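Example noted here:
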Amino acid sequence: MAFVYLAHAPEDGVFASRLSSDLQQAGIENWYDSGGISDEVAFAKLRQATHFVAVLSPDALANERFLGALEYARENRLQRLALRLTQIETLPPQLTGILPLDFTNEENYAVGLDTLMEDLQLEPPLQLPDDIMTRLESEIALERKAGIEALLQYQDKNDPLHHLALEELRAVSFRERDDALRKVAHAAVQAFLIEERPPQAEAKIPSKEELELQAATQSQPLIVGKAGIQPKPKVIYLWQTNRWYAVLLGTALLVGGIAAVASGEWAYLIPMMLAGLVLPWFNIWVRENGSLSWEWPKPLVGNGAVGVVLAGLAALFLSLLLDLESVFLLVNTILGVAYGVFTGWLSSVKLETV
């Protein structure tokens, strides 16, 4: 006689009580945790069950007793059914291949209940043949190997026993003591999973002419204009050219030189030259080898920050070494920020070549 175990989280007790009552009125014996039930009593009821109904909710999927009962139902091949009280993105692995009934709102309750009762009164649950199970549980390695090979007959994903065979193979691959047989079981699991993959579209082999055309258009894209078909200009950035270092070093030398001439202090050259040496390399490293996101306006902010640190530290060191006035530190800090922002803007300048 069928006996249904309703697995649910304590937070879903009201729903479980209603469902249990409706099933009982329909003549379907069942049990649910009404609260304050010990683990021993709950497990005793679970051992009596022929059917297992999982009431899915976020609380249930985080409940240890619920997950433990679900694993027991899988291991002991109880007929498992599921229903969901909310949207569930990912089903537990123990419910693979089982479509949960929708009990997310009151309008769906009556339809879901009818479907559930129909499912509970179906023919006895599918089971793998006893002779295969006997072989898999044998103490003789050759018998267990024969059992594994026998499960391969259910490799077709449309076979009613496909999911049962796959679950059994997974269990064997974990519990098998013999390394060689464990590898055989693992290979069988992979064969089942390959069968479940969606079919791939047949690959089309391009002709020689298509390959030549593809290579030509990739190496020199074409655009159509009033003058006919013309090569599309290739876009590169200034930092990718040989002019990158020359422009920035020249700018640093020019700015530092103007400040040195205006103040009469040669030390103004050093902070700017330090920034001029480091910032060009820093930008190339970030864009080619770094892991930083370098989208606008991050080049401005990043270079400005590096520029002020380089120029500021150099100016601070020189101020202490040469006993310079505080205005020297202030001017170089401002110049460092300005030079960094200029470098960031310059690193985003695009050039076009045919």
Summary: The mean pLDDT is 83.
